[in-house]
Design goal:
The protein is an alpha/beta fold. Helix content is 46%, strand content 15%. The chain contains 9 helices and 8 strands. The strands form 2 sheets. The chain has a 5-stranded parallel beta sheet, sandwiched between helices. It has a 3-stranded antiparallel beta sheet with strand order 6-5-7. The structure holds adenosine monophosphate.
Length: 215
């Protein structure tokens, strides 16, 4: 296996395309932290911090948190020691201004686009369940936990995200197509884009990802 050194990766792709699942599977290979802006926001909401209280209603409705708040948060996170050499950014950037800001404080090695149709996004998100404690993702039909509502990995409680309800899902898809999908071209023009078909099983997506990155 080629040693790529530490990589700075961005995961693009619609909600439900498997960014978080893929990231969780490859952090050990890449030895870089998995930084999910959505997970940071959810943790802030759970502890009812100032940030959490500010963003809860926006996130539950399926809208994007403002670029200003999000960029500041990511900039601080990337300045921490564990992220200096490499990272997987899952869910950031989500807008062109976020991508431009990122270019100002970090150099991206590759942008991985997990491609999935709207129909499959709907199918996946409407059955998605996540662990409140460790964030591991399940699907009610395709990948249920062994014991109902209990995480196989950490024993935490499994729940449905407020923004995985029908109305918010539609809104998030629209926001994705309008504001985030243009990032595919943004990174293609820079020669950094890697496209991975998000339809197959998790194992196959991991395999294709590794091949595409030469790992
Ligand atoms: P995710 O877990 O990536 O699906 O993110 C959940 C929600 O957090 C999104 O629907 C947004 O409301 C918010 N969020 C996450 N990342 C960003 C971002 N880069 N910019 C703005 N809002 C974000």
């Amino acid at each position: 296996m080629a040693n790529m050194g530490y990589m700075k990766l961005i995961f693009l792709g619609p909600p439900g395309s498997g960014k978080g699942t893929l990231a969780a599977r490859v952090v050990d290979i890449l030895k870089v932290p998995h930084i999910s802006t959505g997970a940071i926001f959810r943790a802030a909401i759970a502890t009812k911090s100032f940030l959490g209280l500010r963003v809860k209603a926006i996130i539950d409705a399926g809208h994007l948190v403002s670029d200003r708040i999000t960029i500041e948060m990511v900039k601080e996170r990337l300045a921490q020691a564990d992220a200096r050499q490499g990272y997987i950014l899952d869910g950031f950037p989500r807008t062109i201004p976020q991508a431009e800001a990122l270019d100002g404080f970090s150099t991206v090695d590759k942008a991985v686009d997990l491609d999935l149709s709207d129909a499959l996004v709907l199918e996946r998100l409407s059955g998605r369940r996540i662990c409140r404690k460790c964030g591991f993702t399940y699907h009610a039909t395709f990948n249920p936990p062994k014991k109902a509502d209990i995480c196989d990995t950490c024993g935490g409680e499994i729940y449905t995200r407020d923004d995985d309800r029908e109305k918010a899902i539609q809104e998030r898809l629209e926001v994705y197509r309008e504001q985030t999908a243009p990032l595919i071209d943004y990174y293609r023009k820079k020669g950094l884009l890697v496209e991975v078909d998000a339809r197959p099983t998790v194992d196959l997506v991991v395999e294709n990802f590794r091949k595409a990155l030469g790992l």
